[in-house]
TrEMBL record:
Keyword flag Transport: yes
Family in the record: Belongs to the binding-protein-dependent transport system permease family. MalFG subfamily.
Family matches, as PANTHER family: MALTOSE TRANSPORT SYSTEM PERMEASE-RELATED (PTHR32243), MALTOSE_MALTODEXTRIN TRANSPORT SYSTEM PERMEASE PROTEIN MALG (PTHR32243:SF50)
Membrane-spanning residues: 41-64, 76-95, 107-128, 140-159, 166-192, 204-228, 264-287, 313-334, 365-387, 415-434, 446-465, 485-504, 525-546, 552-572, 584-603
Domain of life the protein comes from: Bacteria
InterPro entries in the record: BP-dep_ABC_trans_perm, MetI-like, MetI-like_sf
Major localization listed first in the record, in broad terms: membrane
Identification of the protein by name: ABC transmembrane type-1 domain-containing protein
Subcellular locations according to the entry: Cell membrane
Species of provenance: Nocardia suismassiliense
Domain ABC transmembrane type-1, chain residue ranges per copy: 411-602
Length: 617
């Protein structure tokens, strides 16, 4: 049966037997761009470095970790699988609660799936033991705290979206490592504890738990709120998105805002979720050794198992599996509908509408001033502690740390490792992101790729550090910079590819897709990528550099005396915290100068446009 004449004259696209033709409905103009279909081997070679790094340093060690865990503690592995199946099933039932089909089947599945979750958790708690189970309970509290932080930050970003310069003090802490924040908040809480006359061990346990929560909140609150605010401003700058947000008929305003910010929430949620589940640095340096066992997390407990020579490696591997399941499940909750995204969500539009800004109310200005002032208190505490030398007020501690060859050598080593790892991540991630962005979003390959990247982005270090550390020790690579560089690059590639893919997306068949993924030579493609994803490239580079510069856990387990990051040096000084508090504060301030300066210099130009598609106005 053929189409009627009226329909045939209106058709501009033809798809028959795998051949897709599209007629030009307007006059073509402009210079011709030379190009041809890229050869398949070129794309394969370009994506080879990222594939080799990720597979060899992350995927293979994860598989080896699972095998070791099955051999040592099969009950832990089986219970993790049961909990994962039950939790995913319950989530799917909740998402399909409005579907009227097979209602009786879904009601029958509810008790079965909930029973799987409960039974799996009971068996898992028994297998992990009392101390291990309580460490996981505290980690679960950290993850829930991170979720609450996301919700509260979104509300505050909406409430204060008209504010401008008042946000800058809130952004500074994200460039400061957990080691530095642990030093700052330990100084603050020890001082307040002495002033309040706290002597009870139970009260001190609660006091240091509050200290850990305050340090985490201080580090992430400004970053999350600032990106959410920029994302909201980007929505308001787009007439179509703004109309859907304020006048849409589907769902409530909160639901429409969640749908519009979903891609940004994925990136921010992954960062906060991993940080919440991997609370490690701040515990080791911020909590006295006698209190660490009472407030430690699953990561700290796993580290103790991993470094204990009397405990089998498979036992530590099995203990880290539930954390991977927990973080992976949270990441899976954050990523629905993102993998099918068809248009770029991170590249700023060329034509934006300036949103009318209402004058900020006096009460809102006062609240923002107060919050910004509180955000600067930890830095002020570090400065005061650094100036309070052994012989009274002075610059003696700062002078000693500035002239300390060990600290300067560690800072130099960290700069080399962070810089080279950043270059590897950007160079290896761009070709893979470009190819993934060119895939049609609804194809299975694109969906599998995005889900796999999300899973790899949130894998805890426990999943792969053990086998990698064994390999490094076996072949005498400990104490060199190369393992640190490659491992940091492999760990940072998945999230970098996700961000870059989001910047390079374009709806199939549109002029944007033709301009970005059309036929062209390598030089033209490179210029197109830089033009389209320039802010995202800058954001990926800056965040990777800051992440590697501030790293503690990977350096602790992988590096040796010849490649010691500055964070390990400060951790050694923290063992005599009271005697070395001035030098610790001075070293912490010195180590924070470069990442904070880099963050502030690129926040408005690269980070915000690259991660949200908005600009700070």
């Amino acid at each position: 049966m053929t189409d009627p004449p009226e329909a045939a004259t209106e058709r501009t696209e033809f798809d028959s037997h795998g051949l897709f033709l599209e007629l030009a409905t307007r006059r073509m103009r402009g210079p011709l761009v030379a190009g041809s279909h890229p050869r398949r081997w070129v794309g394969l070679v370009a994506g080879l470095p990222a594939t080799v790094l990720t597979v060899s340093l992350v995927v293979v060690p994860v598989v080896w970790t699972v095998v070791s865990a099955v051999r040592a503690r099969p009950l832990v592995v089986v219970s993790c699988a049961v909990v994962a199946v039950g939790a995913v099933g319950v989530t799917q039932l909740v998402r399909q609660r409005g579907d009227q089909r097979d209602t009786w089947l879904r009601w029958g599945l509810w008790p079965v799936l909930l029973g799987l979750v409960v039974a799996g958790l009971v068996v898992l708690g028994t297998a992990l033991g009392r101390d291990g189970s309580w460490a996981y309970v505290r980690t679960l509290v950290w993850v829930l705290f991170g979720v609450v932080l996301l919700v509260v930050a979104l509300g505050i970003a909406w409430w204060g979206r008209d504010s401008r310069w008042l946000w800058w003090p809130l952004i500074v802490p994200v460039g400061i490592s957990a080691v530095v924040s642990g030093v700052a908040f330990r100084l603050i809480f020890q001082y307040l504890g002495d002033r309040l006359g706290i002597e009870s061990v139970g009260v001190y346990r609660f006091w240091f738990a509050a200290m850990l929560g305050s340090a985490f909140l201080w580090t992430w609150f400004g970053f999350v709120t600032g990106l959410f605010r920029a994302g909201i401003r980007a929505i308001e700058s787009d007439p179509a998105r703004a109309r859907y947000l304020y006048r849409g008929e589907k769902g409530t305003l909160a639901q429409r805002l969640d749908a519009q910010l979903r891609p940004v929430m994925l990136i921010v949620g992954l960062a906060v979720g991993v940080a919440a589940a991997r609370v490690f640095d701040v515990v080791l340096i911020g909590v006295p050794g006698s209190m660490q066992y009472q407030v430690d997390s699953a990561t700290v407990h796993w580290w103790r198992l991993a470094v204990d020579s009397e405990i089998e490696a498979g036992v530590a591997a099995a203990y880290g599996l539930p954390l991977a399941v927990l973080v992976g499940f949270v990441a899976w909750l954050l990523q629905p509908d993102v993998r099918t995204q068809k248009t770029s969500w991170s590249v700023p539009r060329r034509h934006t509408v300036e949103v009318a800004r209402h004058p900020a109310k006096p009460l809102r200005v006062l609240v923002m001033l107060a919050v910004s002032g509180v955000a600067l208190l930890p830095i002020v505490a570090l400065i005061l502690a650094a100036l309070q030398d052994r012989n009274g007020w002075g610059f003696g501690a700062i002078t000693r740390m500035w002239r300390d060859p060990a600290l300067l050598r560690s800072l130099e080593t960290t700069a080399w490792v962070a810089g080279l790892a950043t270059i590897v991540v950007v160079a290896a991630g761009v070709p893979v992101a470009y190819r993934l962005a060119a895939l049609r979003p609804n194809r299975p390959a694109a969906n599998i790729a995005v889900v796999s990247l999300v899973v790899l982005s949130v894998l805890p270090v426990q999943s792969y550090l053990g086998p990698v550390n064994t390999f490094i020790d076996t072949y005498g690579l400990s104490g060199t910079r190369i393992p640190l560089i490659l491992l940091h690059a492999a760990a940072g590639l998945p999230i970098a590819i996700l961000v870059l893919r989001g910047a390079l997306l374009a709806a199939p068949g549109t002029p944007a897709a033709d301009a970005l993924h059309g036929l062209a030579g390598p030089g033209t493609i490179a210029r197109r990528v830089l033009t389209t994803a320039g802010p995202a490239l800058g954001a990926v580079a800056v965040l990777e550099f800051i992440q590697v510069w501030n790293d503690f856990v990977i350096g602790l387990l992988i590096s040796g005396a010849g490649a010691t990051p500055w964070s390990l040096l400060l951790w050694g000084e923290a063992r005599q915290f009271s005697e070395n508090s001035a030098q610790l504060a001075a070293g912490a301030l010195m180590s924070a100068i470069l990442p904070v300066a880099l963050l502030l210099a690129t926040w408005r130009r690269w980070l915000v446009p690259g991660l949200t598609g908005g600009v700070l106005r």
